[in-house]
Amino acid sequence: MILTDALFCPAEMSVLLASYAMQVKYGDYVPETHRPGFLAGKTLVPNRVRDQHKTWSMGEWERKVMLWWNDHRGMEAESAMLEYLKHAEDLEMYGITVSASCSYMAVLSVMGVSL
């Protein structure tokens, strides 16, 4: 939901969550193995976030993710998943389903429902 932008996530939080996702998928960051370009072609942050920071190249996004990823050295995949979820739960719109609605006067609006 974060990468598809169904759930709003600021840039810094997007990078942090991407670093946890890399820890889960690849384990510890190893500079010799995970060289620049290793994450090329992978969706690291939502397109909206990248569009807001057009001055940052994909290499800069990758470097930021790798810096945070390196901080998770020694973290088990399960712990990284839990950290990801803890941070995701703190997002403003977490747990809210947004739907379009239309009034009887044909006025289109957006409604958020928290369950």
What does the secondary structure layout of this molecule look like, with pairings?
Elements (H helix, E strand, L loop, with lengths): L10 H16 L20 H6 L5 H14 L5 H13 L6 E7 L5 E7 L1
Antiparallel strand pairs: 1-2
Helix pairs in contact: 1-3, 1-4
CATH architecture: Up-down Bundle
Shape: elongated
How far apart the termini lie comes to: 17 Å
Biggest β-sheet strands, sense, barrel: 2 strands, antiparallel
Q: Please, what is the average pLDDT?
A: 83
From the 3D structure, determine the CATH topology: Acyl-CoA Binding Protein
**Number of individual domains:** 1
Description:
Helices cover 43% and strands 12% of the residues. The model has no long low-confidence stretch (mean pLDDT 83). By secondary structure, it is an alpha+beta fold. Strand 1 and strand 2 form a beta hairpin. It has a two-stranded antiparallel sheet. The two termini are 17 Å apart. Helix 1 packs across helix 3 and helix 1 packs antiparallel against helix 4. The radius of gyration is 17 Å and the shape is elongated.
Quick structural overview:
43% of the residues lie in helices and 12% in strands.
What key phrases describe this protein's structure?
single chain; Acyl-CoA Binding Protein; 43% helix; 115 residues; alpha+beta; two-stranded antiparallel ribbon
